[in-house]
Design brief:
heterodimer; A: 7-stranded mixed beta sheet; about 0% helix; B: about 120 residues; mainly beta; 6-stranded mixed beta sheet; 5-stranded antiparallel beta sheet; globular
């Protein structure tokens, strides 16, 4: 079966510091990968998605970037964190390929980031 | 473009009572619809999905949802609430695949409280 791992679970970082959040998927190959952010009291906002190694699409302009160095690894980064980057970050995957057009997303347990 | 509106950011019911969480969607293409549940500090777990088969969809934990095209609704129900149902619930709609990626648009969420 497929599993998705995110780490760390919680992170407290000062303003201006760098960020690296990692997500890996096991049990599947060539998945679609996604980063969502959930701000307090708000819904989920899609930040980035990737359909393959090195292929990153950004949904909103922001202080963050994403990379996919390996098939099942997705990294969310920032060079200098802002206070507004605080939130709950969720990684998700969905199967890629014909016949999967109605597949749901499967989420990791999230990383709670607090920028101080 | 796709959008989701969840009516009521907070819903409170008594244990054993009917649970009704409302979701209305807007979609330019035949929609795929999903309900997710989120427990505190955890990721999202899929409850059920509508993928153009039966309009009444049964999910996990006794939940079900009915797709009504004429009302553009996909309300979530459970006949008898249990204390363990206390969580936040998200309705989501998918749009056309973008390079094979399943981009879900989420509602703002409804926090369900169960009173003993």
């Amino acid at each position: 079966s497929q599993t998705i791992h995110q780490w760390p679970a919680t992170l407290v970082q000062p303003v201006g510091s760098p960020l690296s959040l990692e997500c890996t998927v096991e049990g599947t190959s060539n998945p679609n990968l996604y980063w969502y952010r959930q701000a307090a009291g708000r819904g989920l906002q899609l930040l980035f998605y990737s359909v393959g190694i090195g292929q990153i699409s950004s949904e909103v302009p922001q202080n963050l970037s994403a990379s996919r160095p390996q098939d099942r690894q997705f990294i969310l980064s920032s060079k200098k964190l802002l206070l507004s980057d605080s939130g709950f970050y969720l990684c998700a995957w969905s199967p890629n390929g014909p016949g999967y057009h109605n597949s749901p997303l499967h989420f990791g347990n999230g990383t709670r980031l607090t920028v101080t | 473009a796709q959008s989701v509106t969840q009516l009521g950011s907070h819903v409170s019911v008594s244990e054993g009572a009917l649970v009704l969480l409302r979701c209305n969607y807007s979609s330019s293409v035949p929609p795929y619809l999903f309900w997710y549940v989120q427990y505190p500090n955890q990721g999202l777990q899929l409850l059920l999905k509508y993928t153009s088969a039966a309009t009444l969809v049964k999910g996990i934990n006794g939940f079900e949802a009915e797709f009504k095209k004429s009302e553009t609704s996909f309300h979530l129900t459970k006949p008898s609430a249990h204390m363990s149902d206390a969580a936040e619930y998200f309705c989501a709609v998918s749009g056309p695949l973008i390079q094979g990626a399943q981009k879900l648009v989420f509602g703002q969420g409804t926090r369900l409280t169960i009173n003993p």
